[in-house]
Amino acid sequence: MGKQKQQVISRFFAPKPKSPTQEPNPVPESSTPPPKISATVSFSPSKRKLLSDHLSAASPKKPKLSPPHTQNPVPDPNLHQRFLQRFLEPSPEESVPETSSSSSRKYTPLEQQVVELKSKYPDVVLMVEVGYRYRFFGEDAEIAARVLGIYAHMDHSFMTASVPTFRLNFHVRRLVNAGYKIGVVKQTETAAIKSHGANRSGPFFRGLSALYTKATLEAAEDISGGCGGEEGFGAQSNFLVCVVDERVNTDTLGCGIEMSFDVRVGVVGVEISTGEVVYGEFNDNFMRSGLEAVILSLSPAELLLGQPLSQKTEKFLLAHAGPTSNIRVERASLDRFGNGNAVDEVISLCEKINASNLEDDKEIKVEAAEEGMSCLTVHTIMNMPHLTVQALALIFCHLKQFGFERILYQGASFRSLSSSTEMTLSANTLQQLEVVRNNSDGSESGSLFHNMNHTLTVYGSRLLRHWVTHPLCNRNLISARLDAVSEIAACMGSHSSSQNSDELVEDGSERTIVSPEFYLVLSSVLTALSRSSDIQRGITRIFHRTAKATEFIAVMEAILLAGKQFQRLGIKQDCEMRSMQSATVQSSLLKKLIFVVSSPAVVDNAAKLLSALNKEGAVRGDLLDILVTSSDQFPELADARQAVLVIKEKLDSSISSFRKKLAIRNLEFLQVSGITHLIELPVDAKVPMNWVKVNSTKKTIRYHPPEIVAGLDELALATEHLAIVNRASWDSFLESFSRYYTDFKAAVQALAALDCLHSLATLSRNKKYACPVFVDDCEPVEINIQSGRHPVCTCFHFLFSFFLCLFKMEMYRSFCFQRYWRLYYKITLSQTTQVCMQKGNIAKLSPDLTWEERAVISVKLL
């Protein structure tokens, strides 16, 4: 509702009385009618109706006429009624509807741009770049004032608030963490281009440059801004989970038992910052216990609800995404995906895959299949259940607005919720056993994962969380992981006990060689990686072309360092036997992981990509001097740089002509406050009339000749063209990284697995855990516990021993606790000590002692 108009009532004044010097004219009895009284009054329609009802209900009172002792004319009795009728008449302005006034409201050019952007993105909080600040308008300003604690005020037609540009990163994270979808609107043209274009007199063109939510923030441009450790980000997984369901008929099974399932649920979860995709479809009961287990294991940052959704499913999801969980919820309609359109929508993704990418990634897909993962192909889509395909289509359409849909068909690893190699824990198990969160305050502290987590990297911590919530159930995989942990633990022991050469360690009947060199390399690599950034999300940002040059260099240097360090172990692959050979590492799992990290493809490609960048320019922040140009690499960028150099040389060489013109031999160009090529002359110096005065002091004046003005204008245009070409070249360089993305992703995943194995080895040595040994299938199943202790029995060891002593002495029936404590304090410490030292045990106690005294001495002995 618009703001009500102010009510303005014109006042009425009687004619001024004549001056006292003049004699009053007598009023004739048949006087002419009094002059017309006109009034213009504006009331709102509701108040006008209320006033008219009140006046019609009340009987009009006749005004009391005052005696004609004044100069005022005699009032007419009907004058008041006529006044009220005229008072209540609608004015011409009031007859126009209120919507027309709002439609005819005039906006400034900037406000008109904001209105157009808001109509395109109605559910987005827009931050509009205006000069050196980002401004909020309308309801967005009120949201920013409430969340960020800034001041919002009225400016022209909208409420407005603003933040400085250098604080963009910090404020975007705070707004996203509050659950809003944030859009950053930037100027699409610079002042130099605008001054030479057709829009020189209009406002800057602006467009949406970035869009952020909780699930896409880490995959977007790195805006850590010094607050990377803020709650809700960092080591936590940021899954975007889409849920769809449909009702099922309560059929009966073959045995006649009625099913307890009422819906079939389809779930797809995407970790955009790492490229992991989890999908599945299952029947669920009215309690939605299966869906609860999936949500608890994934811990999503954002939920996408496919409408229509059953009432119980939506109620559970909204309750889980309450104010305490800080999960963002968004709805999407499934109407467009009816009659098989969802399958067509998803299959269209696969058509965008190049044949070259398929050939290059053939080996990676084979390794992913061995680990229970797959890539998005037509065969994979056709094998998916129809609800899963609908959820995948919704996620694809959702990611299109962010520009991250490429991760689904080119860089994602698909994994099913139900796997034959991993266990699926129920929601009750995860909660009651406090696997990932405790039951006291819901935090991670004190949980099973918190006690087991000794990882050194962020991506290793994320992988260990998946290992804890999805235990292995395949014997071969368990044995391989146990062998790797045992070997790392043995290397730790050999390294700590001696700094010498190899050590022999017995493992059952076999003897394996344990080399401390392997532990030295592993620990040094993990320590170096712990000081670097999150390279797993870094390579994903490079894949999305949102990474900066400094982040690209840091990620490639970390991968190159790890690869070169592991190459020292000399692990080679036998092409014929397809097995790993190494003299320092025995575990097959460790050999495989180390070979993936130190493969020639990874090391050579990382060195090749780093050679194309200028590290010094990236450190200086010079965006125009990041890429290294050559004859066959970035030729357009080389031409643009050459054009800028030619113009600069032309400007610098023009100083000789001005020396001759002014007859000053030592004349040089001056630079003041960022303004270059200034000619500084004394105040009394004579210069041509067309010279432009830029600034001055008390004694000097600084000028720009027309030739310099034209040259600087040309230089500004050339610099803008260089920036555009440099941005295009940088995008093409990042685009070429997609050819190596699968190799680098596999290498980072192997580093995370090595970190998890090192964490488990550290845990086993600190807690002195024993390695379980599997028996053959023909052997009987047995549990053999030696020197086992139960925590409850340990705490109450004194109480158990005491009652056992009483039972042996056959006095437990007549024993009284009150008598026991009374006699306990009667016996002195010296007597008890003497008896204990002389007799030694209960069986040889002195016969002079009573049974109560014997019980007390027995307790002391225990």
Automatic annotation (TrEMBL):
Residues 443-796 form the DNA mismatch repair protein MutS core domain. The keyword Ion transport does not apply. InterPro entries: DNA_mismatch_repair_MutS-lik_N, DNA_mismatch_repair_MutS/MSH, DNA_mismatch_repair_MutS_clamp, DNA_mismatch_repair_MutS_core, DNA_mmatch_repair_MutS_con_dom, MutS. Signal peptide: none annotated. GO terms for biological process: mismatch repair; mitotic recombination. GO terms for cellular component: nucleus. Its main location: nucleus. Residues 23-36 have a biased composition (Pro residues). SMART domains: MUTSd. Residues 1-78 are annotated as: Disordered. It is found in: Nucleus. Keywords: ATP-binding, DNA damage, DNA repair, DNA-binding, Nucleotide-binding, Nucleus. The keyword Nucleus applies. GO terms for molecular function: ATP binding; ATP-dependent DNA damage sensor activity; mismatched DNA binding. Belongs to the DNA mismatch repair MutS family. MSH3 subfamily. This is DNA mismatch repair protein MSH3.
